[in-house]
Specification:
26% of the residues lie in helices and 26% in strands. By secondary structure, it is α+β, with helices and mostly antiparallel strands. The strands form two sheets. Strands 1, 2, 3, 4, 9, 10, 11 and 12 form an eight-stranded antiparallel beta sheet that branches.
């Protein structure tokens, strides 16, 4: 009789251990999922560039990491901006938040905004103009204009290939424009592909509230891994 009882106790003990193991495994998987989702949503986010607007520095198909955290935008920094098409209700925002939490931000059914990767070339208070696709900037409280390349802390190149003979300058984005001054919390953004890019030349100044993230570095293709952020 005692032998039978021992077998039952052992069997019951094994079932309890198996149940605890399954519970711990499920808890670990769920916790890992939530932590990774939080990191990829609010700390560092993977983004794929799907157009040629930032060539030659960030070609189409390049994957980058960007962060919504921290400091003010610096001149020449690559940023992610949102173009909002309509305002969402509280329920729609909540639905987007929940859907994004379980899909690593891949699915957000009510979000109508389009995110763009562009370079912040004009900061609040700047006066600037463009000539032959090159930007000239007079920073706030300074008397002289400088080319965008003289002011930036990290070198980059732009695609300003000469248009074909007979090209109508009124077609597409402008290669030159007169002086404009940026107000408080206003930014001017351009694509590195100056001939074929929707940027501030088309949709105007960008409010700081629409800047979502700063691009840190590219991680794919693997042979083109490089930092894209600014040195402190």
């Amino acid at each position: 009789m005692s032998k039978s009882t021992n077998i039952y106790e052992i069997s019951f003990s094994l079932k309890q251990e198996r149940r605890r193991f399954i519970q711990n495994a499920v808890f670990f998987v769920v916790a890992f999922f939530l932590v990774m989702n939080a990191i990829l949503s609010f700390v560092i986010c993977p983004i794929q560039q799907k157009s040629a607007s930032m060539e030659p520095n960030v070609p189409s198909g390049t994957c980058v990491f960007a962060t919504p955290l921290g400091r003010k935008i610096k001149r020449g920094e690559i940023i992610i901006i949102a173009q909002n098409e309509k305002k969402l209700t509280f329920r729609q925002k909540l639905g987007d938040l929940l859907a994004g939490a379980f899909t690593f931000q891949k699915v957000r059914p009510w979000t109508s905004e389009k995110s763009l990767m562009r370079r912040a070339v004009g900061l609040p208070g700047d006066t600037l103009y463009m000539k032959d696709y090159i930007l000239y900037v007079q920073p706030k409280d300074q008397k002289h204009f400088f080319t965008e390349f003289e002011l930036n802390q990290v070198p980059y190149s732009v695609d300003i290939s000469v248009p074909p003979a007979g090209w109508n300058p009124q077609i597409g984005v402008r290669g030159s424009f007169d002086k404009i001054t940026l107000g408080e919390n206003e930014y001017y953004v351009l694509g590195d592909n100056r001939l074929s890019c929707a940027d501030s030349r088309l949709f105007g100044k960008v409010n700081g509230a629409n800047i979502q993230k700063r691009v840190l570095f590219s991680y794919y293709p693997f042979n083109q891994i490089k930092f894209l952020k600014f040195k402190k």
